[in-house]
Amino acid sequence: MPIIEAENLSKVYPIAVKEPGLQGTITHFFRRTYRAVEAVKQVSFQIQPGEVVGFLGANGAGKTTTLKMLTGLIHPSAGKVRVAGHIPFQRKAEFLQKITLVMGQKQQLIWDLPALDSLKINAAIYGIPDKEYRMRVGELTEMLSLQGKLNQPVRKLSLGERMKAEFLAALLHRPQVLFLDEPTLGLDVNAQVGVRDFLREYNAKYGATILLTSHYMADITALCDRVLVIHQGQLVYDGGLDELIDNFAPCREVKVELARALPESKLLPYGEIKALEGQSVRFLVERDLLTRTVARMLAELEVVDLTVTDPPVEEVIGRVFSAGGVL
Ligand SMILES: Nc1ncnc2c1ncn2[C@@H]1O[C@H](COP(=O)(O)OP(=O)(O)OP(=O)(O)O)[C@@H](O)[C@H]1O
């Protein structure tokens, strides 16, 4: 039985429209007019217990709005949603015990206090017995490599440590369903890898279900076999990540730092040039040609530095859209 079910889920935000100037302000005060923004349109999907699903979409596509409906923070305008057997918007205590929402750009830990103090508050809110609390904090501290970090004020932690402490707080009540909105936002590569490793271990250990949004393709490739892609409020893809990448990102991004700048005409033979600034060039190279092209670059150009990555997730999604993204 699915643990997350959305059926024709929709959200329309009414936005008050105001004309500029004093006249506009007066009219706005007495007779408000509204414009409707359809943030999510008839989205349907099911997620089974233990699945780790990536939720992709460009800025403003409707990801956060969907997550807010799934966690009961906002009421859907239409459609049905059930999470862990509950209707989220009722926000029943049994429901809140089963879920958690981590937002990369929001924090629940109190800035000036050690994380341990905030954790004690969470333990009291969720009614976690003292012995169990200590056991869980110990276990999560070890999984997150946060030893010695929970006693100092949160503001003194690095961004990566703070995010891990946020995870500790968000998982203390051992939720079955994790909704993660950009959990690695702004973290350096090492910290991103730390969070990813932790999530993989947590999922394997507790069988938790994870729905994750991220603009970092590496998060999605490391964690998710399945992805949902949303575009302008509509679900345009629900399926395997491999198929998505094969179909829509048949290229790799090659960033090259040259010893000296070269004209575009000298660089064109190596691939599609996405950006050229002085000595820095960003190419898109077909995956089948990657090894050969990189070898040629190293042999024929004066290369100072070269890195190969997946194209940004936005580019992959852009291809899904331009191809009309079919479910
Ligand atoms: N509270 C709100 N009131 C009015 N419009 C909103 C509100 N929240 C979001 N929107 C609009 O709904 C649409 C979807 O926004 P949402 O935040 O869900 O997108 P997103 O996919 O999470 O984007 P991002 O990746 O930038 O966080 C956008 O057009 C946004 O401007």
Q: What would you note in describing this structure?
A:
The protein has helices at 21-30, 63-70, 93-98, 115-125, 130-143, 159-171, 189-206, 217-223, 241-248, 264-267, 290-300, 313-322, and strands spanning 4-17, 33-47, 52-56, 78-83, 99-103, 177-181, 209-213, 226-231, 234-240, 251-258, 272-277, 280-286, 303-309. It is an alpha/beta fold and 327 residues long. The strands form 3 sheets. A 6-stranded mixed sheet has the order 5-6-7-3-8-9, sandwiched between helices. Strands 11-12-10-13 form a 4-stranded antiparallel sheet, with helices on one face. A 3-stranded antiparallel sheet has the order 2-1-4. A hairpin with a 2-residue loop joins β11 and β12. The two termini are 22 Å apart. Bound molecules: adenosine-5'-triphosphate (ATP). GO terms for molecular function: ATP binding; ATP hydrolysis activity. This is ABC transporter. Pfam families: ABC_tran (PF00005).
How many beta-strand runs?
13
In total, the number of domains comes to: 2
Question: What is the correct CATH architecture of the largest domain?
Answer: 3-Layer(aba) Sandwich
Main β-sheet: number of strands, strand sense, barrel status? 6 strands, mixed
Structural class: alpha/beta
Each distinct ligand: adenosine-5'-triphosphate
According to CATH, the fold-level topology of the largest domain is Rossmann fold
Can you tell me the overall shape? globular
The first-level CATH class of the largest domain is given as Alpha Beta
Low-confidence stretches: none
Task: For the record, give the distance between the C-alpha atoms at the N and C termini, rounded to a whole number.
Answer: 22 Å
Helices, by number, come to 12
Q: Kindly state the mean pLDDT as a whole number?
A: 90
Radius of gyration: 23 Å
Strand content: 25-35%
How is the largest sheet built, in terms of strand order? 5-6-7-3-8-9
Protein name: ABC transporter
Domain ABC transporter: 4-257
Keywords: ATP-binding, Nucleotide-binding, Transport
Organism: Aliterella atlantica CENA595
